[in-house]
Design goal:
This protein has one domain (2-157): 7,8-Dihydro-6-hydroxymethylpterin-pyrophosphokinase HPPK (Alpha-Beta Plaits, 2-Layer Sandwich), CATH 3.30.70.560. By secondary structure, it is of the alpha+beta class. Helix 1 (14-29) runs antiparallel to helix 2 (63-76) and helix 3 crosses helix 4 (140-146). It starts with a strand and ends in an 11-residue tail after the last strand. The chain contains 4 helices and 6 strands, in the order E-H-E-E-E-H-E-H-H-E.
Length: 168
Amino acid sequence: MSQIFISIGSNIEPQHHMSLALDELQQLFGSLQVSSIFESQAVGFDGDNFLNAVVGCQTELTLEQTANALREIEVRHGRPKNAKKFASRGLDLDLLLFDAVECQQPVILPRPEIFYNAFVLWPLSELAPELIPPSSQRSFGQLWQEFDKTKQQLCPVSFHWQPTRVKV
């Protein structure tokens, strides 16, 4: 079993899409560890605010199978396969970590956004404060403590997810 962490973001009907994404992730991976949900401004473009979270879970899928499964979930939620990086979206799922794998393909791991986006680092530090990412000397908890929190404002939001059965 591999330990993985996935970031979830949405700024189009975010409560709806995040709930459905959590349902699908639970169906795919089983038990989920879900961080707090945070609201943040869009980064890199003008758009509605995002809701963001990080999920931790285990999988028997390979790295490539995991990346493909996440992309399929995004597509089911209206994200075009050729979507622009900085654009509004119903659902954005990014594989942040897959065990201690470092690679460039099929995705870049560890995901670089971990280290410079508060909406990824804060929830990841909630789930795995003692975990030290590959090629780092500091844990996620330490990285969050050292992060310049004036650069990106986050607001924890109330979000109540009730798992449901989804048909994929």
